[in-house]
Design goal:
It is a single chain. About 80% of the residues lie in helices and about 0% in strands. It has a two-stranded antiparallel sheet. It has about 475 residues and is mainly alpha-helical. The two termini are about 20 Å apart. It is elongated and about 150 Å long.
Length: about 475
């Protein structure tokens, strides 16, 4: 086996040089490519700028080739110099490390660009779909037509109440003008009580009707919900659920009669008081003194003022009602536009959903065929398509760094392995020694002789012959440190 070590050392040493030449060539080509890329992108750069920018990469490539001789020197140097040489060798190895790491990282980045473009496009589509859905939901929650209709109805109701109150005052004055007796203070006080009771009764009736309507609407919605559930149960053939729901519907009570009965308990006493006060007012009015001309003229002026107030109030409320009706019409038109917009939004959402599905079909295979994302997925326990950029970045740094470190140290370690094999090879007296190890490595600090050296191909006795002298005269030395290729 020891006879083959010289040949192994020679080929291993050549392999080390091949690794370093390839690394230097790749580094130089990378530098030139980056320089050309920058030169093409610039509008002011000249050929001299390209030359100056690329020259350092050429010098770095030459420096990278010195790792093999330095590794050989590290193997054969004394222990005093080994730490210094090792530190310098590691600094040179950093050049290869940077070249390999940059190439791997650039290749991964180019692959990630396509994935990130798809992912960003999907995120944008989802954001757009969310905005459209939010707009539709807001439109459904905001019923502009109902709001405008409610405002219009309230305006009409307020106008009717105010005009009715003014008209009631006018009718009272007219009734007084028809009477032959004047209104005494006692009768006026009773009349004021009657007006207050009427207002209180009207307010109670309005509250009763409002609460009854609200409770009735809730009851109707509950009953409609039960009806729909019963219909669904029957359609599904679930008769038990249908009967149970029908029993629950039968238990529902309409709250309107209860609310009306509650308010009637308060309204009934008011009706009794009003009947009593009206009878008292009629009695006091009949027993009053005769009306004078001045009193009648005052009542006439009061009636005229009330009529003018009624006309002015009616005009104002009419303008308000017209404005409310206009707003209602605009709301109806806007609702029609919103319906068309909602339909267009729905079409767009459907289109976005199709685009997202198509993009996902492209994104997922890219993620699952990407080595970085597959490794990150196994490490973090997620699917490759769910790996985040930070997780993929962490895994790529570790993976690319390990590969670049191996590539950076492969050449020097291979060279030292060649030296070790050469040192263990026989120095003379064998055919293997003749074909020989040509690694420039030293045994105990001395270099081995070159391959096929006549000095090594002969026996020690022939070393004293003329042939041996010719060998020495031609520079062949047993301590030659040059590797023969």
């Amino acid at each position: 086996m020891s006879e083959k070590l010289a040949g192994y050392g020679q080929w291993t040493y050549r392999g080390a040089w091949a690794l370093e030449i390839a690394a230097a060539t790749i580094g130089l080509a990378t530098g030139l490519a980056l320089g050309l890329q920058a030169f093409s992108a610039s509008q002011t750069a000249t050929a001299m700028d390209l030359t100056l920018a690329s020259a350092p990469f050429f010098m770095v490539a030459i420096a990278e080739l010195t790792k093999i001789p330095i590794a050989t020197l590290l193997f054969s140097a004394s222990w005093l110099w080994k730490p210094v040489i090792l530190a310098f060798l590691l600094v040179l190895a950093a050049i290869t490390f940077e070249t390999v790491f940059m190439g791997l990282e650039r290749a991964a980045t180019l692959r990630q660009l396509q994935y990130e473009e798809l992912a960003n496009g999907i995120d944008q589509l989802r954001a757009e779909a969310a905005e459209l859905a939010a707009a539709d939901e807001l439109a459904r929650k905001t019923d502009r037509v109902a709001d405008a209709k409610a405002v219009m109805d309230e305006t009409v109701a307020q106008a009717d109440r105010e005009l009715a109150a003014t008209q009631a005052q006018i009718e009272e004055v007219k009734i007084e003008l028809l009477a032959t007796t004047a209104l005494t203070p006692a009768a006026a006080a009773v009349r004021d009580q009657i007006n207050d009771k009427d207002k209180a009764r009207a307010a109670l009736i309005d509250q009763r009707d409002r609460e009854a309507k609200e409770a009735g609407d809730v009851f109707e919605r509950q009953r409609d919900s039960f009806d729909r559930r019963i219909e669904m149960a029957r359609s599904a053939g679930d008769t038990d659920s249908a009967r149970r729901l029908e029993a629950e519907v039968a238990k529902l009570a309409n709250p309107r009669p209860r609310i009306i009965a509650k308010f009637d308990q308060t309204i009934a006493p008011l009706d009794g008081d009003l009947n009593r006060l009206r009878a008292e007012f009629d009695r006091l009015r009949a027993s009053g003194p005769a009306m004078t001309a001045a009193q009648r003229q005052k009542l006439t002026d009061q009636k005229d003022g009330l009529e003018r107030l009624y006309a002015s109030t009616a005009s104002d409320w009419q303008a308000r009602k017209d404005d409310a009706r206009t707003r209602w019409a605009h709301a109806q038109e806007a609702e029609a536009n919103e319906a068309r917009t909602a339909a267009a939004n729905q079409l767009r959402q459907d289109e976005i959903a199709k685009q997202i599905v198509a993009a996902e079909k492209q994104r997922i295979p890219i993620a699952r065929t990407d080595q970085v994302r597959r490794i990150a997925g196994r490490w973090y326990g997620v699917k490759p398509e769910d790996v985040t950029e930070s997780q993929a970045g962490s895994v790529s740094v570790i993976w690319f760094g390990s590969l670049a470190l191996i590539a950076a140290l492969a050449g020097p370690i291979t060279a030292m392995a060649a030296c070790s094999a050469s040192r263990r090879a026989p120095n003379s007296g064998s055919k293997a020694g003749f074909r020989g190890s040509s690694a420039p490595c030293c045994s105990n600090g001395a270099g081995a002789g070159p391959a096929q050296s006549p000095c090594r191909s002969r026996s020690p006795s022939i070393a004293k012959s003329k042939s041996a002298s010719r060998c020495r005269s031609k520079g062949w030395s047993r301590r030659s440190s040059m590797f023969r290729f």
